Amino acid sequence: MNLRALHAFSAVISEGSVTGAAKAMNLSQPAVSRLISVLEAELKLKLFRREGRSLSLTDHGQEFAREAGRILAGVRELPAIAEEIRNRRSKIFRVVSMPRTSLSVVAPAIARFSEAHPDVKVSLDVRSRRELESWIAGREYDMSFGNVPISVATATSVPLARAALEVLMPVGHPLAAKGEVTLQDLTSYVLIQNHPGQMLRRQTDVLFDTQGIRIEHEILATTSGMAQQLVAEGAGLTILDRLSTFATDDRVVTSRPLLPQTWVKFGIIRHRDDEPNPLVDLLTEFLRNRIRECAQLCAASGSIVSIERGAEVPNSMP
Q: Which residues form the HTH lysR-type domain (predicted)?
């Protein structure tokens, strides 16, 4: 990809016009326009809607802008990384979490890990599953925690837990009076869901399609964290695994088991060629301990199971 064209795209967005981008990049306006055209041709996407002399992002452009921002942020970090290598500073232990369990599992585990090992410099990122292949291929991190199995041939995974899907709702909601909630129960309410194509959404779509149930009223949220906040604000209900609900405020929201019972797995993900790393083993134990805590807190329902002896799992979707 033409990195200069990517910078031009970002500059047009940040400056609000081709003229502003040209000044910021010290280029002519036609040069910036050509770079944008090159990028659109390379991506086979129309990024901007041209209305006279003004530009506005298309839907594809808005989605690409989010990804481009992350790429350019990584590029901007390269000088600092190079300086770190030159100065032979202590190696950073780089960890990435998928969003769903970043607050409920990974953050508590990292906090305890850092308290026990204050000499280790930890970098924690939260990135979506759809970026998995790129950061695994680039070996950007020492380890990841998220949904397993995975469909990336260059990665290996070790399951640490499985959790049942539940329905998250505001405290006092009519469905809170039920011991379990069926898919049919949800048709009378607004359901907050991830966008089509996201992993959790694919799982719930299969459930609804299998029973021939259609949800008429929904709100789309990019992350499960946003879905949880919308539930707390009274906007509707959402389906979420029990392990992830530990990040919610139980004074405001509550959850009930979903029928039919459906399980998801979580575990460690690494590049298959990574060398053994004692820090990975140490953090894995802190993650296991956090999972055990969560499992104990919901022992009555059995909705979280700690997988004590994780084995490598095939890289295919469950």
A: 1-58
The answer to whether 101 and 266 are in contact (CB under 8 A) is yes
Tens-place pLDDT, residues 32-58 = 889 989 888 988 889 988 877 677 899
Do residues 256 and 176 make contact, with C-beta atoms less than 8 angstroms apart?
Answer: yes
Maximum distance among all Cα pairs of the chain, rounded to whole angstroms: 67
Say how far apart CA 175 and CA 168 lie, in whole Å: 10
Of 73-87, 145-159, 271-285, give the range with the top mean pLDDT: 271-285
Q: What pTM was computed for the model?
A: 0.71
For 120-141, the pLDDT digits (tens) are 999 999 988 877 777 787 788 9
Containing H/E element for 293?
helix 278-297
Give the E-state strand segments of 43-197 in sequence order.
Answer: 48-51, 54-57, 93-97, 122-126, 143-148, 155-170, 181-182, 191-194
pLDDT digits (tens, 9 = 90+) for 160-170: 999 999 999 99
Asked whether 255 and 168 are in contact (CB, 8 A), the reply is yes
Number of Cβ atoms within 10 Å of the Cβ of 45: 13
Whether residue 291 contacts residue 105, with contact meaning beta carbons closer than 8 Å, is answered with yes
Q: What is the average per-residue pLDDT within 189-207?
A: 93
**Per-residue pLDDT at 81:** 63
Quick one: which H or E segment has residue 266?
Answer: strand 263-271
Question: By three-state DSSP, how is residue 36 classified?
Answer: helix
CA 96/CA 138 separation, integer angstroms: 13
What number of other Cβ atoms are within 10 A of residue 176's Cβ? 15
Q: Which amino acid is at 266?
A: F
Spatial separation of the C-alpha atoms in residues 231 and 16, rounded to whole Å: 35
Arithmetic mean of pLDDT, 93-108: 94
